[in-house]
Design goal:
This protein is α+β, with helices and mostly antiparallel strands. It folds into two domains: 98 residues, no CATH class; 107 residues, Immunoglobulin-like. It contains six helices and eight strands. Helix 3 crosses helix 4 and helix 4 packs across helix 6.
């Protein structure tokens, strides 16, 4: 600890005036026990404040008051009014008032600056926590990206491109099918955003006779940033198609809403 910087920071004056929080006061109290220089500084601050209080307090001449009372009691013809003489306030008292006022103003601004500093520190802590969370999220996203690339580059994975159909010729998707693990990864980043109340449904197709089997929905499409969805597919698929269906999906595909379609290449 730099003791001189700590003393000049103004925290000891705030401590003597009771302007610190309970936690800050405990911290200063512990510091006083550890450092005699700081303890001595606090004692000098307390002595200075006591002197200021004594200097600005109104003073009375006790001897003059007693003499006036005796005089009035012995003077039967007097009016009975006792005059209490008050000392004229010496110029040093006015100096004391001025010094006290300056000290209080200084402490006010010091206390205000202390509050601003505390708020700034809290803001910095919140910003730091947010940055740490963003870094953690970025690392997590990077790890997920590496895992996904490893999956897509696996030799056991077959890529099936799905071309746009009449409803949207510009649409495109791709299926990365791992037959060994019965998993199909749907890359749907080139599909348009589904309207409210609608959802994309993925179908595994047998061609002769045409037999569609749903393998799942592309749920929360707008919330998924990379638009890659993992679905289970244990079917002997000969083709894949994606249709737009009412929210919750359908038992059979709505052919008028067939967005993309692609056949599995022969081995």
């Amino acid at each position: 600890m730099n003791i001189q910087e700590y003393i000049s920071s103004g925290i000891l004056e705030l401590y003597v005036y009771g302007a610190l929080t309970e936690a800050e006061s405990r911290e200063v109290s512990m510091t006083l026990k550890e450092h005699s220089e700081i303890r001595k500084e606090v004692e000098e601050i307390e002595i200075a404040l006591q002197k200021l209080s004594s200097a600005v307090a109104p003073t009375y001449n006790a001897e003059a008051i007693l003499a006036s009372i005796k005089r009035k009691l012995s003077d039967k013809s007097g009016s009975g009014v006792i005059n209490i003489e008050r000392k004229k306030t010496p110029w040093v008292s006015y100096m004391g008032w001025a010094a006290s006022l300056v000290l209080l103003i200084g402490l006010f601004f010091l206390f205000d600056d202390n509050n601003d500093l505390r708020e700034q520190l809290n803001s910095e802590k919140a910003h730091s926590a947010e940055m740490e969370q963003q870094i953690a999220d970025a690392r997590d996203d990077a790890k997920k990206t590496e895992e996904l690339l490893a999956v897509l580059r696996d030799k056991e994975v077959s890529k099936i491109p799905l071309q746009g159909q009449n409803v949207d010729p510009g649409a495109y998707a791709a299926v990365y099918w791992n037959k060994k693990e019965n998993t199909a990864y749907i890359d749907a980043k080139d599909l348009p955003e589904p309207p409210r109340g609608k959802v994309y449904q993925v179908w595994s197709l047998k061609l002769e006779p045409l037999t569609p089997t749903s393998i799942g929905l592309l749920a929360e499409f707008s919330m998924d940033e990379n638009k890659i969805f993992a679905l289970e597919n244990a079917n002997e698929s000969e083709a894949f198609g994606i249709t737009l269906e009412p929210e919750g999906g359908s038992e059979s595909p709505t052919m008028e809403q067939l967005y993309v379609l692609g056949a599995v290449a022969a081995p």
